[in-house]
């Protein structure tokens, strides 16, 4: 019997706090400040289920039963571009003879990044929303 992996999730609240601190500390010029303040960050969990398996070859037991998994998409938006990073991360903690989790373990990580510039239509819609 396999133990289902524990799904881990991320939150994006710390991004805004860190960005505000960065702006406060560095005092960027008005144009750079406007661009920085326009940034948004959104994490969305992809529905992986709890039976995530490694994508290794058949017979490869590397992380065949991960103890934890994280899969989702990070979207970073700015004034003119949107960057999307898809992430899959699975890990398995090793346990010593006493049943205690050790600092050793196995990790598998994969990511895919894509970026796109906003279209004129999208920029126009943003301008109209800001004008309201």
Task: Name some characteristics of this structure.
132 residues; 5 strands; five-stranded mixed beta sheet; 3 helices; alpha+beta; single chain
Q: Secondary-structure blueprint of this entry?
A:
Elements (H helix, E strand, L loop, with lengths): L5 E2 L5 H14 L3 H9 L1 E6 L22 E10 L3 E15 L5 E17 L2 H12 L1
Parallel strand pairs: 1-3
Antiparallel strand pairs: 2-3, 3-4, 4-5
Residue windows where pLDDT falls under 50 for at least 5 positions: 48-59
**For the report, how would you describe the main beta sheet?**
5 strands, mixed
What's the end-to-end separation, in Å? 58 Å
Average pLDDT number: 77
Using only C-alpha atoms, the radius of gyration works out to 20 Å
| Number of distinct helices | 3
Strand content: 35-45%
Word description of this protein:
The chain has 132 residues and is of the alpha+beta class. It is built from three helices and five strands. It has helices at residues 13-26, 30-38, 120-131; strands spanning 6-7, 40-45, 68-77, 81-95, 101-117. It is elongated. The N and C termini lie far apart (58 Å). Residues 48-59 have low confidence and may be disordered.
